[in-house]
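Lab notebook: predicted structure, single chain.

Context: the supervisor wants predicted structures on file for every construct in the current expression panel, including those that have not yet been purified. This is the next one on the list. No modifications to the sequence; it matches the entry in the shared construct table.
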Amino acid sequence: MKYTYQYRILPTTNQKITLNRWLRVCRFWFNRQLGERFQWWEQNRCAVNSCPLICHLPELKEKPNYYSQKKQLPILKKDVVTVQWSKEKLDLSEVPSLTLQEVCKRVDKAFSRYISGDSNGKRSGKPRFKSSNRFRSMVFEGGGLSIHSCSVGKKYLYLKTPKIGLIKVRMHRYLPDGAILKQAQIIKKADGWYVNLRLDDPTIPKFNKDKIVANWDNSTGLDAVLYEDDYLATSDGKNSLLLNLS
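Prediction complete. Output recorded below exactly as produced.
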């Protein structure tokens, strides 16, 4: 069974600087991929209700997907990337590869929900380019991710992340025995930094929902009552008395 626990983390000043810089790189990579997809979307379609009889279309391009955009990472990591509008220099090689690949998944999921919809055919709104206050999380996974206990007291533990090292975690809730760490999502909020630990515990059985069909025999109606000492009435004609907790 997989579940998620959220903890507050206490990174050092240097770790905060690194995390903020990595968030900036991930946000740039998100917006770059989204811009490529919007460009393909506009250049490879034509409105049916207002299409002229004779029109010239640019050369059709292949649809960007998760794999084609992920292949750009080795090329972009070879040199520093310059942001066009701000002339800011960003180095994608300092961010873990799996973290950047997770950004590719986010873009692919958001754009696919926009043009195709989910499994039920329900489409989401148009994805937005992310500003600094809208892109606040990164995902870490892989072999370099692990949890280390603190030898002094039981209020803290340490999360080891790739290229950053040990980050102090405020353990307000104990981790279950036998839980395996699969993924860590570091989030920047207004009141500090947090981490979502994605855990997998094979000892906990999966919950199988019972297939119960509602009918008149297994259903009961409830209604609030404001009469004398009664506070609840059921469809069976029974009334429940108000509890006196004074």
